[in-house]
Amino acid sequence: MVEIGPIWTQEALRDSPHIDAEKARKVQGMFAAIAGSYDLNNRLHSFFQDQRWRRAAVRAAGVNATTRVLDVACGTGDLAEAFADAGAAEVTGVDFTPEMLAIARDKGRRNSGAPRADSAGTSISAPTARTSVTYHQGDAMQLAFPDQSFDVVSIAFGIRNVAVPARALAEFFRVLRPGGRLVVLEFADPTNPIVRWGSNLYTKRIMPWTASMVARDASGAYHYLPRSVSTFLQPREFAQKLQETGFEQCSAAPLTMGICVLHRAVRPKNQ
Fold first, then answer.
1. pLDDT given at position 113
2. Integer Cα distance of 114 and 104 in angstroms
3. pLDDT for res 126
4. 0.90 surpassed by pTM
5. Under the phi-then-psi rule, with left for phi > 0, alpha for psi from -120 to 50, and beta for the rest, what region is 179?
6. What whole-number distance in Å separates Cα of residue 206 and Cα of residue 213?
7. Are 268 and 246 in contact (CB under 8 A)?
8. Residue 123 has pLDDT above 80, yes or no
9. Are 159 and 185 in contact (CB under 8 A)?
10. Which domain holds residue 118?
């Protein structure tokens, strides 16, 4: 765990963190601070739903033995490794924070040679070894890959952390081949008022303190989380941004009563 002092203070979060001129630096610093406990907090504070959401993203992507996948803001590698488990031909993970990538690479080494599994998590036999994931440090707004390099681009709980999300979406569009799929997992404010009340109580009052204690975090990362969700684009607005970027067949599927939303979009075959 990297010892880092306050990054997201109450004053810094008074306004939307998405307009903070230092957002990129702060996001990188907070993830460096919480990398060591990131997986544990994800499991505990999603009530072990986070892996189910990732499996849903893999199913929505429709991977097979010829699919090339790019997982952006891959963090500790959970989604990238799930694509490898599902039998994708090639999986590449990109993240902004070296400390997160170090954990992803360790996870990948442990998983190498393991039997493949389908998107539901059931082991299946395969004539070849499990796909290995290649991890790189990089910026979602400036991907170091040629045009039309991938069949699938994914990003899980990362698009709201990008300094300029529209630039990242344009990059996703660029590196996808025509007909390629984009899958995005992101938190949202549930539309049901009772569920929204309960979610707000948990994410804004309880989780910031309990997650910070688990992580022994002083950066304010888990105070940033609910503020970054409530001030980010809601599902209908995000779908509009996807369409403005050029994507078609844009859909938004609520998961776990709308706490999480699975977005899917396609780059048109004639572009």
1. 62
2. 16
3. 41
4. yes
5. left
6. 11
7. yes
8. no
9. no
10. 17-266
